[in-house]
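Sequence only, no structure available. Ideas?
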Amino acid sequence: MPSSFMPRRRLTSLFVLTLVAIGALPTMALAGTHPGQAELVREVARDTGQSPAALNALLDKAHKQQSILDAISRPAESKPWSAYRPIFLTGKRIDAGVAFYREHRAMLERVAKQYGVSPEIIVAILGVETSYGGNTGHYKVLDALVTLGLYYPPRAKFFRSELKTLLELPSNKLAGPIDTLTGSYAGAQGWGQFMPDSIRDYAVDADGDGRIDLHDSLPDILASVANYFAKHGWVRGGPVAAQAQPDAAAKKLDWQAAPQWSLEQLEAWGYAPLQRLNPGQSTSLLTLDGARGPEYWFTFQNFQVITRYNRSPLYAMAVYQLSQAIAAGVHADDMAGTATR
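Reply:
I predicted one. Tokens follow.
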């Protein structure tokens, strides 16, 4: 008998097994490469109508990165102010901010006027986040959000939500295909380091080309940062922070991001402002561990808005002080230019 001959009963059994195996393929595919992938894919497919197979294929390309888990465990914000400030308030970063402001002055001031946000604050955000676009991050965004959303229990809820948002964003809100995007170890993208939910809610197509590009379109970058601040309650022309001088009997206070008391009340508790301020202005009191001892600062609504970008008061103070240094540098250049004319 030819070797290809096989009894009918055995053929039937193999056929049945093959059908069972084929039927199991979609279920096996849904199991995914990462823990929790199957449920995530089901949610995104349900909410957007995307193909589960395509979503799984995309997520299968992502890799858990130990370097990302290491990086999130040692944030710069864990440093005291005396060590944190020198990271961002350097002569090089200030000079680069002044040069950036002067080069893009017309665009910056147009955006600032439109959104009511100080132009030096916009520049300082770019300076602190990415050194004015010089370092936007080298991690794959997909790797970062998969690693933190599916393998980092302390903040898995937040990062899984950001991963879901990334998968749901329309292509015209991203600088390229998802698996090509790069950013920070936390999955933030572009010059302003926007997370996916911030891209969804606040990013702006300012150059009118039909897409949002926070990597290569400066109009989109500047307008998106300004829009973020405006939508979070930035007060046009309002104060950000002001230094205070305590007396020997000053009441000890815990800082809260939202302004808690009137400036008049804090003065009654022993904290004198070192500049003229509205005594009825709502404020909080922030104490920082400075290089020469404790520093005391009144913080206002606009300071709280900066903490919506990054919740650390150290971050907000670095942005504010860098913005002041940039504004002073631009003003000095303007005065020098006026004197030579």
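The longest helix spans residues 313-340.
Hope that gets you unstuck.
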